[in-house]
Amino acid sequence: MMSKKMRVVLLGPPGAGKGTQAKQIVENTGLVHLSTGDVLRDEVARATELGKTAKGYMERGELVPDGLIIDMVRGRIESAAAGFLLDGFPRTVEQAEALAKIAPVDVVVNIQLARDEVVRRLTARRVCEGCGKIYNLLYNAPEDKSTCSACGGKLLQRDDDRQDVIENRYDVYERSTAPLIDYYSERQLLHDVDGAQSSQAILSEIMAILSE
Ligand code: AP5
Ligand code: MG
User: Residue 169 catalytic?
Assistant: First the structure.
């Protein structure tokens, strides 16, 4: 089933559940999922030129410079222009303006979550090294703390999921990314969703927004 709202942006603070929702949404809609964080972590793992430059910013919880990010996503967005779900992009007004020129978006879903719950969730997050499945030791625990229940892969903690870095990521979000709430609201594209609900309740709300 293809969604009517085909070019979708997931906005929200770190740990709001963008990646968790994105995996479910693409299964339900066939949209192409593009997570700039996942692409960057892959570049870092492969020690590419971009990865070597991005690594320091990511470890500190700072944004990677706009020019590098825009160059990185342009081709991917162009080739998915029929239907995409962006997760973690755009993150600045400059990125949003570049996106508007590449492929204008149809709908922006803003998942809201307060800072204290972000810290709680991210310090308990584990991610499968093999299949990328996202777990939480508090809310969505694997059977074994270090093994993926789905594929048997090893569960890792992200380098930037340390309390001090999480706090900085939230500050950076408030300073650089939260202005996109007004930006998309003025363009009548914004839909708020309460991220403190269960994953299933959030997914139902998002699917309703996408089929409006
Ligand atoms: P990125 O990877 O995008 O990280 P982020 O925005 O900080 O978001 P997260 O991936 O941490 O959280 P999420 O919202 O996906 O939550 P998740 O579903 O995992 O970016 C990393 C870095 O890359 C940036 O800091 C920056 O350096 C760089 N970067 C990336 N994009 C960039 C850009 N465009 N420009 C510049 N730099 C860029 O869920 C979190 C946890 O909560 C999990 O444990 C999950 O199981 C749990 N959970 C999810 N939903 C629920 C629920 N409803 N109830 C209970 N628990 C839940
Ligand atoms: Mg994510």
Answer: yes
CA dihedral 91, 96, 97, 103 (to 10 degrees): 140
Closest CA to 17 of 99, 173, 122: 122
Are 105 and 9 in contact by the 8 Å Cβ rule? The answer is: yes
Q: How far apart are CA 90 and CA 151, in angstroms?
A: 31
Out of 23, 74, 120, 158, pick the active-site residue.
158
- The pick from 76, 111, 136, 165 for probing ligand 1's pocket by mutation, whose C-beta has the most ligand atoms within 8 angstroms, reads 136
List 7, 18, 121, 126, catalytic entry: 18
What pTM does this model have?
A: 0.97
Known active-site residue 46: no
Q: Which of 18, 22, 21, 17 is nearest to 33 (CA)?
A: 22
Please count the residues of the chain: 212
The pLDDT tens digits of the residues spanning 53-70 come to 999 999 999 999 999 999
